[in-house]
Task: structure prediction
Amino acid sequence: MHTPGPILLQDRPDTGLDFDVERVRADFPALRLEVHGRPLVYLDNAATSQKPQVVIDRLRDYYAEENSNVHRGVHYLSQQATEAFEQARWAVAGFINAPAPEQVIFTRGTTDSINLVAATFGRMNVGAGDEVVISTMEHHSNIVPWQMLCDEKGARLRVVPITDAGEIVYDEYVRLLTPRTRLAAFCHISNALGTINPVREMIAEAHERGVPVLLDGAQAAPHWPIDVQELDCDFYCFSGHKMLGPTGIGVLFGKREHLEAMPPYQGGGDMIDRVTFERTTYNELPHKLEAGTPNIAGAIGLATAIAYMERVRRGEIAAYEKKLLEYATERVREIDGLNVIGTARHKASVLSFLLEGVHPYDTGTILDQLGIAVRTGHHCTQPLMDRLGIPGTVRASFAFYNTPAEVDALVEGLHRVQRLVG
Amino acid sequence: MQNDSIERREEEIVEAFAFFDDWMGRYEYLIEQGKQLPPIEERFKTEEYKIHGCQSQVWVQADERNGHLFYTADSDALITKGLIALLVYVLNGQKPEDIAHAKLAFLEKIGLQEHLSPTRKNGLAGMIKKMKLYALLHENGATEGN
Result:
């Protein structure tokens, strides 16, 4: 285990940020793009976020000046790369207030993290006749790994119902925590509806009954300060690319006792201690769960993204995004025949809706012609769409670099859709 | 009976689209075409007649009459309906072997290139495939009947 000490992130010089959205936008080159001859209005942040120049530069600099494999070399470059990589781990640990960096496992993303838990912790703890609890609003990545586990083990998947507004029916959740429940898994924030789940209470409820909880934090980490100790979650999963970082890098945080007890996920280099054909012993955390050459550049890029977000001040990010979502919700509600899908009391970032009589595909295609990027369809939440009785939604999802003017453009675009299609 | 060839029908469409300077006009025209599509009977709105890979629902069905193929179709999204209406217009009443070998070059010429991408999920490739598949089936059928 490497202990690099205080974080020395090689960032660009501070641009002296206050939270000024126009200045923030200037940091993101992609926001200057034109689409179909019009300025890009990027409202698909729940799918992925744009990247600040510092992250782009950091990736380039890594490959130009520091590239080497980690953990194995004695030469200078490999020391540099290893330092940077392990410092990135510290940065992530600080970002989520993990007790120790070795509890931060780098993965390919949220989906990879959840699969890792299902394949190791899940297999170890879930047996025939046991139960795993999830909710109706989950993303497929927080459904399918559990289905696969339950199928393999002869266990039962229980699903907490939701209200029409898109909130968990709390009493039903409690009812579904039975003596057979071995794990509960929920999204912190819903990607299709924007619902912020009462995860602290849900975790406390589960722990009273000895049930560990995994949180899918893919939509939360970009928008909401995460403190895994305060949440007391057993596992927390999120993706770098949704929070200004590169693709192909994600995080699994786990409580130490779970991670220590979990068998390895993938076998290979780095996760071993000693290999012989008779017997192989495994490395300690975190390396036990990180086989092969990691996404070194990805981890370093993620740390740079975290540093950038810290500079923009995360409390202000959440406050600004809240205001923007409120403004957007107000404005779209002015449109006749528009139904907001997902009206939980507490929401973040996501505004899903349908125009009456207009297929979401038509809406999205026409908005695209206007340079407005939204997402249409089931958003990888087919069971949720079935529950709501709709084929899909149009989803606008905001980040702290979006503006009220962009909301106005969206509303104008929707009026045009209605004129064209009505 | 269909007197125009597939190519002649394609030319008509290319000309009609060339008339529009901007995308709004093209989409309006496309949506109009969709509205004029001969409707598919409800009994054909099943999995068997559905195109897969679409974000919207699209059904296509074909009948053979006197060695020529006739299509009906529908979609719950207007743009997709327009696209399939164009295909039906071009291929309707043609001989199965002509349909099976049609290059359908008009699609690239009408300024809706983005819809040709398989990632657009409008199943355009799927529609073409299904319509040609019907043609192939009837091509074989016709041969066997002789």
